[in-house]
Design a protein that fits this description.
Layout (H helix, E strand, L loop, with lengths): L9 E5 L9 E2 L1 H10 L2 H5 L4 E3 L1 E6 L2 E7 L10 E3 L2 H12 L5 E5 L2 E8 L2 E9 L2 E6 L3 E3 L6 H6 L3 E3 L4 E9 L9 E5 L2 E7 L3 E8 L13 E9 L3 H7 L1 H11 L17 E4 L3 E3 L3 E2 L2 E3 L14 H21 L5 H34 L9 H8 L5 H8 L11
Parallel strand pairs: 1-7, 4-14, 11-21, 16-17
Antiparallel strand pairs: 2-6, 3-6, 4-5, 8-9, 9-10, 12-19, 13-17, 13-18, 14-15, 15-16, 20-21
Helix pairs in contact: 5-6, 7-8
Length: 399
């Protein structure tokens, strides 16, 4: 869709979305959909709208972010399972005559022609497929095959946690609001998704929020110190269940639904970025260029911002089949600041806020910063702007 006005042929591959993919769609992304003329159709799809983010610190309820004053058409954060969102985008893109989609096509290698990437080789149910292109865009996630085959240098910023995911049923009497509970060295996040919950639990580790989908279910993510999953399993399933229920007693009546470790999946978290996002004929964006911490749920939104910047800068060049290495460098230069700023913000929270909470064995009270947000609600607009718009939000240029 972003290249439609440049009459550029685009071919995408689509694989099954992972169960732990995030589903937060930020106001900056909703604004891009407005600029593309597809927002109204998106809002007709099942989704939830979150105008405020808050939680509990000890026994105190706090509101952290208020999205209702953002300078955007949508004053809320939307929640939609990522596979539903990707299906929606695919449907909209399929209306463009220059867009082509290959399902179940797994990239296995790059095609190199005279030192330039000239396309990809992919494995399909029908055999090997070769796709030739003047520009290959690697957007295949944090385990990117494209960037691995290109030999691009990865800078590992460290992620001292992994996440254990599980599913619990949701009841009509459950709290209706989005929850984040911090107390006694534990953190539990729950997001009400109407017919199911989405949640994240942290203990002696770092924070995260997450996603899975099943009707009338609550999805929880137990965040653990990196590499300690085996130790947690050795303590036993009952100890694991009770640690979750300790923060939110309303889960006690269903915690026994976790009857086997096979119901709990492990996600290995990484935070990194490429030293260089490109080489002749190739550009990486999104998690392939910079894997984000789950804090704030900004991953897919930054990936979309990267795509908009790439379309704005490269669209006219692609139409003339004249994309140079300096053009690809311009995309990285444009998106480096928001990427670095966001990752620094996430690491700051991870190391200076979450670490202190998880290292405490005492009942917590809200720190002075959160108390200021409660006393002067106007200050809640600041974290809302950082989360909702990010650093240097992109806009679709009319062409």
């Amino acid at each position: 869709m972003l290249f439609e006005h440049d009459n550029v042929n685009a071919l995408a591959r689509k694989e099954k979305a992972q169960h732990y993919a995030g589903d937060t769609i930020h106001p900056s992304t909703l604004e891009i959909m407005y600029e593309l003329g597809i927002l109204d159709e998106f809002l007709k799809r099942p989704h939830q709208q979150v105008t405020e983010l808050g939680g509990k610190v000890g026994s105190e309820t706090v509101t952290i972010a208020d999205f209702t004053h953002l300078p955007t058409h949508c004053h809320f954060l939307a929640l939609m399972p990522q596979w539903d969102f990707l299906n929606f985008i695919t449907e909209q893109a399929s209306r463009c005559p220059t867009f082509h989609l290959r399902m179940q096509a797994e990239v296995t290698d790059l095609i190199e022609v005279n030192g330039t990437v000239g396309g990809v080789r992919a494995k399909t149910p029908h055999g090997t497929l070769e796709i030739r292109a003047s520009l290959t865009v690697g957007a295949d996630g944090r385990r990117s095959v494209v960037r691995e085959r290109a030999g691009l240098k990865v800078i590992d910023l460290g992620a001292p946690m992994d996440v254990m995911w599980m599913r619990l049923s949701r009841r009509p009497t459950d709290p209706p609001q989005t929850l984040g509970h911090f107390d006694r060295g534990r953190i539990l996040f729950l997001i009400n998704r109407e017919d199911y919950w989405l949640g994240a639990h942290t203990s002696d580790c770092r924070f995260q929020a997450a996603d899975l989908r099943t009707p009338e279910s609550l999805i929880c993510a137990f965040v653990i110190p990196k590499g300690t999953a085996d130790e947690i399993r050795q303590r036993g399933l009952e100890a694991f269940r009770q640690e979750i229920a300790a923060l939110e007693p309303f889960l006690q009546d269903r915690i026994a639904e976790l009857g086997d470790w096979k119901q709990i999946s492990l996600l290995t978290v990484t935070v990194d970025r490429l030293a260089r996002w490109y080489q002749p004929g190739l550009l990486c964006i999104g998690d392939a260029a910079h894997a984000m911490s789950p804090i704030g749920g900004v991953g897919i939104n930054l990936a979309i911002q990267d795509a908009v910047a790439a379309a704005n800068l490269l669209g006219p060049k692609l139409r003339q089949n004249n994309v140079t290495e300096s053009d690809l460098e311009a995309v990285q230069r444009r998106r480096s600041f928001p990427t670095r700023a966001t990752q620094r913000f996430q690491i700051l929270i991870q190391n200076n806020v979450i670490r202190k909470i998880l290292g405490s064995d005492k009942t917590l009270s809200a720190p002075w910063v959160l108390k200021l947000l409660q006393r002067w609600p106007v200050l809640r607009r600041i974290p809302a702007r950082v989360l909702g718009l990010g650093f240097r939000p992109e806009h679709v240029k009319a062409r």
